[in-house]
Write a structure and sequence with these properties.
This protein is of the alpha+beta class. It has 2 domains: about 1-115, Electron Transport, Fmn-binding Protein, Chain A (Pnp Oxidase, Chain A); about 125-185. The chain contains 5 helices and 8 strands, in the order βββαβαββββααα. Helix 2 packs parallel to helix 3 and helix 2 runs parallel beside helix 5.
């Protein structure tokens, strides 16, 4: 199973990095698979820990992908690090095993603390569409641009039917980012 989360990690100097990332849940492990090069990967290897945030505010997913990383944080309870203030739950994890790979290494993490902050009331279709759009945007440069644009057009229907203000803001950030990425390619 893959859970779409936000990973907060810190480097040795204590600077926090927030990144949306699918976490694979296999038996007792949360497996984080960042693409190289990656600041989350570097931070976890340096500090041996991170926080997995379970959040329903899709603006944070879209914001992190589009350069908006200034989200309120709280100190973690067991590890040195931070969790998102506006998260439903967070899991503090420590690195147990690392499997290197030239493209996408595996970080096998064990949970040392879990805290539930608010109930999860479910995603509406627009939230799911924004999450899927965010995943597509994170693959710019890895997938053909025309495939990404086609899939975004398909997702737009769910957004138009069910979005609230947060989803509309997140979608706009993602579409603006895609357009910025397309401009250099259009002139070629």
């Amino acid at each position: 199973m893959i859970q779409e989360t936000l990973i907060t990690s810190i480097n040795r100097e204590g600077l926090t990095h927030i990144a949306p990332m699918g976490v694979h849940i296999v038996e007792d492990y949360s497996i984080i698979l960042p693409f190289k090069p990656n600041l989350t990967l570097n931070n976890i290897l340096e500090t041996q820990s991170a926080v997995i945030n379970y959040c329903d505010d899709v603006r944070i997913f879209a914001g992190c992908l589009t350069g908006r990383r200034d989200w309120p944080l709280q100190p973690a309870e067991v590890i040195k690090g931070y969790f998102l203030t506006d998260t439903l739950a967070h899991a503090e994890v420590v690195l147990e095993r690392y499997e290197d790979d030239p493209v996408r290494p595996k970080l096998f993490c064990k949970t040392v603390h879990v805290c539930n902050h608010k109930p999860f009331l479910g995603f509406n279709r627009a939230q799911s569409a924004v999450l899927e759009a965010a995943i597509l945007v994170s693959r710019l440069g890895r997938l053909p641009l025309n495939k990404i644009v086609r899939e975004l057009e398909y997702l737009r229907s769910a957004l138009e039917k069910t979005a609230g203000p947060r989803e509309l803001i997140a979608w706009a950030w993602l579409m603006e980012f895609v357009e910025q990425q397309r401009k250099p390619r259009i002139g070629r």
